[in-house]
Amino acid sequence: MLTIAVVDDEREHIERFKQLVARFFTEFSRYGTEYNIIEFSSGEQLLENYAPRYDVIFLDIDMGGISGMKAAKLIRKVDENTAIIFVTRMARYAVEGYSVAALDFIVKPLDYPSFTIKMKRALSRIQKNQAQKIQLNIDGEIHFIDVRDILYVEVLNHFVIWHTKKGDFRIWGSLKDATDQIDDPNFCMCNRCYLVNLRHVKGLDKNTVRVGDEDLVISRYRRKEFVETLAQFYGNGG
């Protein structure tokens, strides 16, 4: 189910959003028909006990109290993934939205054609970022690892070590086994021992790539492919 937050201090705009959303999912049923709209009348209300549970937030910039822009900056400290779409009467106010990785903005008064374009873009982003889970069986325990949380995968003495944000997981196997499990184009081998999640690359020099807090050796054989794949990743907005 899609969870949508609508944040506006004017009741009529919240009602208008609800009408637009209902019409959208009626006309574009291929996106599914199940959704939940959660209403907030202020930035303060949105931020109270905030948790990363919204797929998309339509956030009014021009509210009394905490502005939509300030609310977005606070949200980004705890939630990097939710799609934020600003709503404003003046388009120039939304330019600052790039600083909080806003997906888009809508100018009031709201109209259905514009809303449809923004909603389709948000859903495309959500589908693209849906987390793939890797299942690891270790000492009789099952662990589910979010692919986005994997820093890199290492093979060492017939063991595969999954280096993740939540710690390391060691399991018997080969790097091919790991590669077969990961259905994600944003991984690339920098040598025969390491499979790198390009999302976590922090730097690159002639012979090494920095992933998280580690410097991994890039083999001469793999360097050209690795650098080209990394450039493509960033060129596509990674």
Q: Could you walk me through the main structural features you see in this protein, from its secondary elements to its overall organization?
A:
With 238 residues, the chain is an alpha/beta fold. It is 30% helix and 33% strand. The chain is built from six helices and 15 strands. It has helices at 11-27, 43-47, 68-76, 112-129, 175-181, 220-235, and strands at 2-7, 35-40, 56-60, 83-88, 104-107, 133-138, 141-146, 150-156, 159-164, 167-172, 187-191, 194-197, 201-204, 208-211, 214-217. The strands form four sheets. The chain has a five-stranded parallel β-sheet with strand order 2-1-3-4-5, sandwiched between helices. A hairpin with a 2-residue loop joins strand 11 and strand 12. The longest helix has 18 residues, at 112-129. The two termini are 26 Å apart.
Give the spatial strand order of the biggest sheet.
Answer: 2-1-3-4-5
Based on secondary structure, the structural category is alpha/beta
Radius of gyration, CA atoms, in whole angstroms: 21 Å
Main beta sheet: 5 strands, parallel
Beta-strand content bin? 25-35%
Provide the succession of SSEs: EHEHEHEEHEEEEEHEEEEEH
Mean pLDDT: 89
**Overall number of strands:** 15
Q: Could you name the ranges where pLDDT drops below 50 across 5 or more consecutive residues?
A: none
Cα end-to-end separation: 26 Å
Number of helices: 6
Q: Name the overall outline.
A: elongated
Q: Helicity, in percent?
A: 25-40%
